[in-house]
């Protein structure tokens, strides 16, 4: 009886000791943060900065250096007003409230024109892309006119736009739409006609209507391509708004209007400062749509 008891209790003790030995002790437990050690996060940040942030900074420094070289080494002091050095532009224009204030007000006018023009270009462009995707006959009938909008010299038809629609907000918006609509049409049409045929057959078996097929299948599948068109058009619409400002000066002056005034008066400091502000605005708009495009592609 004693031997039997020993044979039963001995494995139990062994398993208990094994369990205790396998449990982590407070000395073995680690208290590292969830995101990894700080040194690892610092290395990842440094690598990202070297990969993505350093090249633009280097190119910016090279560009400013070349700017200084042209101002001081190529241009004579009597002709330096044609390209004043960067610090003169900064102190005389960008940091002077009397100069930069009207520029910011004009930039806001241009921004409003860009937003309205992009909205109309997006609505009309998506609608035309949908119509073109309904059949090859419609595509062959409409696509040449879309190409005409892309290749037509806008500056040549700006006087006609002014004669037909006046020289205010409507004319500026039309110029934006003409310049920015083609990428939206082309990418929307490409995305809609590239939907998987098997998915179309599944919707056919489900007896889905044309509207259901368009909303639930074609638009979600074509969204990445459409976002590419929107991103391209976002940069073009800013150019269209500035061109409209230059030619249609009635109403509130836009940044393009000031660019034309500064050019006529040979105010090089203000001219370069206005160009810098307009460029930063265009980069910001393009960056927003680039982030949206990356978000859409990541969600798929």
Structure, explained:
This protein is mainly alpha-helical and 300 residues long. The protein has two domains: 37-83; 84-299, MetI-like fold, CATH 1.10.3720. It has eleven helices and no strands. It has helices spanning 2-22, 38-74, 86-94, 97-132, 136-151, 154-165, 169-193, 197-205, 210-247, 255-265, 268-299. Helix 4 crosses helix 10. The longest helix is centred in the last third of the chain and has 38 residues, at 210-247. The radius of gyration is 31 Å and the shape is globular. The N and C termini lie far apart (70 Å). The model is unreliable at 1-32 (pLDDT under 50).
- How many domains would you count in the coordinates? 2
* Rg over alpha carbons: 31 Å
CATH architecture of the largest domain: Orthogonal Bundle
Classify the helix fraction into a percent range. Answer: over 70%
In CATH's first tier, which class of the largest domain applies? Mainly Alpha
- % residues in beta strands: under 5%
Distance between the termini: 70 Å
Question: What characterizes the major β-sheet?
Answer: none
Structure annotation, total helices: 11
CATH fold description of the largest domain: MetI-like fold
Outline type: globular
Order of helices and strands: HHHHHHHHHHH
**Uncertain segments of ≥5 residues (pLDDT<50)?**
1-32
Find the count of extended strands (DSSP E, 2+ residues): 0
Question: Which structural class do the helices and strands define?
Answer: mainly alpha
CATH superfamily of the largest domain: MetI-like
Mean pLDDT: 83
Membrane topology: Multi-pass membrane protein
InterPro entries: MetI-like, MetI-like_sf
Subcellular location: Cell membrane
Family: Belongs to the binding-protein-dependent transport system permease family.
